[in-house]
Amino acid sequence: MLQQRARALAIAHGTASSLAECRQDILAGLTAAQKHLSPKYLYDRRGSELFDEICSLPEYYATRTELAVLSANAAEIAALVGPSADVVELGAGSSLKARLLLDSLDRPTSYQPVDISAAYLLQQAAEVAATYPSVTVRPVLADFTRPFTLPSAVTAQRMLVFFPGSTIGNLSREHAAALLASLAERTHGAALLIGVDICKDAAVLHDAYNDSRGVTAEFNLNLLTRLNRELGADFDLASFEHDAVYDSVHNRIEMRLVSQRHQVVRVAGVAILFRSGEYIVSEHSHKYAPKEFADLARAAGWAPSRCWIDDDARFSVHYFRASGAGANGAN
Ligand code: AVJ
């Protein structure tokens, strides 16, 4: 995105946003009644690194729990997916989970990570390519929340869409359903392996997004640093604070950047007024009961096949087949 992204457009297979589109989108968010920014802007190079740091925090249970669920059920997953899979990973980020999957699958054909963080995407893809010489690695620079050309697969029947990390939780329930429906339509016959965070005790969620070392705060505030650098904004980092609150009506965490005083910030030449205590919503992270998610996916055209959860019911990994995939689909 932004400059880095504009430079990397040459390798994009998707409809990557131009710098002008990003500026428009950001200004629209900052001038709305409730100020908001898309969480995709959190992931510049530094943001991707900070997110990886979050993943190993004691309070952030999601990543290690998902890895444990994937690893405990790797043999069953491999049997469901079958041989020669083309693995398309959405919002790939770190290749750690993909490696676990590639290790367990039966001679996977290709690995096609889709991500918006260009430099990080290419670095991770290169590392996978070096470790798995028999797998064709094809990175795709694209924003999966916008229409993009799905990577090629030999046959849809062998395509596995891998969407780990509860990244789907960044979308509203409505937009999640729409994305799943569009994927089902475009990958007719494919399978979907998706990680989804489960609704749980508000205190556990609060701590996971307000960690004691302040890494999540740094991750959130890095968004303002990025706007300063890439859009010529003049956010005073010392007068904004991170906060994350659990909204039990929508079952979601809301991450905020809270203005500590009345101030005017200039962003791309536009003056933005902040009252003291006013905040920018920088991310929503929706949580789902496993049945609720399975129902949502079913309505979007995916047939629930299996759902694995950890013993403490913290994180779910669902396996779906496109409905109408035929008798060769798993149960
Ligand atoms: C990558 C979107 C799944 O929502 O838990 C972690 C991002 N934000 N801590 C999440 C995140 C703050 C993460 N996702």
Question: What is the topological layout?
Answer:
Blueprint: H1 2-7, H2 19-30, H3 45-55, H4 61-72, H5 74-81, E1 86-90, H6 96-104, E2 110-115, H7 118-131, E3 136-137, E4 140-141, E5 159-163, H8 173-186, E6 191-197, H9 202-209, H10 215-231, E7 240-247, E8 252-259, E9 263-267, E10 270-274, E11 279-286, H11 290-299, E12 302-309, E13 315-322
Parallel strand pairs: 1-2, 1-5, 2-3, 2-4, 5-6
Antiparallel strand pairs: 6-13, 7-8, 8-11, 9-10, 12-13
Helix pairs in contact: 3-10
Radius of gyration: 20 Å
Helix content: 25-40%
DSSP, total strands: 13
| N-to-C SSE string, H for helix and E for strand | HHHHHEHEHEEEHEHHEEEEEHEE
Beta-strand content = 15-25%
Tally the helices.
Answer: 11
**Gross morphology:** globular
Ligands bound to this protein structure: N,N,N-trimethyl-histidine
Through-space gap between termini: 40 Å
Structure description:
This protein is α/β, with parallel strands linked by helices and 331 residues long. It has helices spanning 2-7, 19-30, 45-55, 61-72, 74-81, 96-104, 118-131, 173-186, 202-209, 215-231, 290-299; strands at 86-90, 110-115, 136-137, 140-141, 159-163, 191-197, 240-247, 252-259, 263-267, 270-274, 279-286, 302-309, 315-322. Strand 12 (302-309) and strand 13 form a beta hairpin. The chain is globular, with a radius of gyration of 20 Å. The chain starts with a helix and ends in a 9-residue tail after the last strand. The chain binds N,N,N-trimethyl-histidine.
